[in-house]
């Protein structure tokens, strides 16, 4: 069994996290906005928060990053990125199942946002029991998914 661990991110992890984002999310960012290296670097410099981010390790090697926010009524999975070399091994599933268990124990929902173009992640989240509750962002480019029961669609009557 693969040993999956989490360690606190440090300021020294900034470049690793930027390169990870480029490898894991670059195609999705490009599909929506186009990849502008300087704009992406500026965005990373604004959002990189070693106090809140964790580095995902696999058998002691850095393999991704995780950012979870514990809010009053929910656990919000702000970001999970697995390096493509480690994708498809169940790493993300195991980490998210752990968050689902924690949310259940605390009587909370697990909520996250996923880009509409990231069909692979959406399929994973659905398999794990999350469902779409809203779309938002410019041109509805983000899907909010949650363990919270979806509201009935008033445009469809039964």
From TrEMBL:
Signal peptide: none annotated. CDD domains: NAT_SF. Pfam families: Acetyltransf_1 (PF00583). Residues 4-150 form the N-acetyltransferase domain. The lineage of its organism: Bacteria, Bacillati, Actinomycetota, Actinomycetes, Kitasatosporales. Transmembrane segments: none annotated. InterPro entries: Acyl_CoA_acyltransferase (IPR016181), GNAT_dom (IPR000182), MshD_Acetyltransferase (IPR050276). This is N-acetyltransferase domain-containing protein.
């Amino acid at each position: 069994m693969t040993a999956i661990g989490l360690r606190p991110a440090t300021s020294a992890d900034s470049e690793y996290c930027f390169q990870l984002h480029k490898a894991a999310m670059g195609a999705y960012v490009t599909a929506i906005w186009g990849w502008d290296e300087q704009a992406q670097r500026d965005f990373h410099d604004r959002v990189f928060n070693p106090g809140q981010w964790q580095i995902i390790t696999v058998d002691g090697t850095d393999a991704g990053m995780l950012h979870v926010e514990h809010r009053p009524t929910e656990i919000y999975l702000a970001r999970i990125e697995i390096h493509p070399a480690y994708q498809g091994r169940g790493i993300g599933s195991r980490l998210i199942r752990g968050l689902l268990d924690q949310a259940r124990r605390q009587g909370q929902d697990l909520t996250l946002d996923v880009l509409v173009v990231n069909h692979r992640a959406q399929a994973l989240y659905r398999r794990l029991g999350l469902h779409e509750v809203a779309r938002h962002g410019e041109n509805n480019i983000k899907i909010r998914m949650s363990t919270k029961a979806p509201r009935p669609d008033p445009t469809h009557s039964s």
